[in-house]
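Weekly structure sync, notes
Attendees: PL (lead), two postdocs, one rotation student
Agenda item 3: pending single-chain targets
PL asked that the sequence for the first pending target be pasted directly into the notes so everyone works from the same version. It is reproduced below exactly as submitted, 137 residues in total.
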Amino acid sequence: MDVKLAFLHGSLKEEFYVEQPEGFEVQGRKTHVCRLKKFLYGLKQAPRALYERIDNYLMKMGFTRSEADPNLYFKVEKDKPLILVLYVDDLFLIGDDPLIHQCKRELASEFEMKDLGLMRYFLGLEVWQKPGEIFLS
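Predicted structure, written out during the meeting:
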């Protein structure tokens, strides 16, 4: 799953100002700056704000954050595990199909999401999946 426009989901806690964007300068006010209302890609604080927002929502959904890796979450429902791996603005889900579908619906109700289907690439690894089998290259 991919969070669309991910960095726009974070909320600003501090005030940020940028120079007037090229083509949007106000005549006679070249020295003025613009105050940001939302995060922009490239802003150093944007990934942290997105992580905090997603982390808070996952905790509300009943996930537990792993102590070994803060991007690994898990929960158990009816003795069935559901594992979620967060990588920047991508989410990978592993578990029972009904749990995965329920989790996707809940996430899509909070964030604009795009379902990318089965994982094909992750951190330089190529992944092939067949029923009962996973191949990595």
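Discussion points:
- The mean pLDDT is 81.
- Residues 58 and 64 are 8 Å apart (CA to CA).
Action: rotation student to compare against the earlier draft before next sync.
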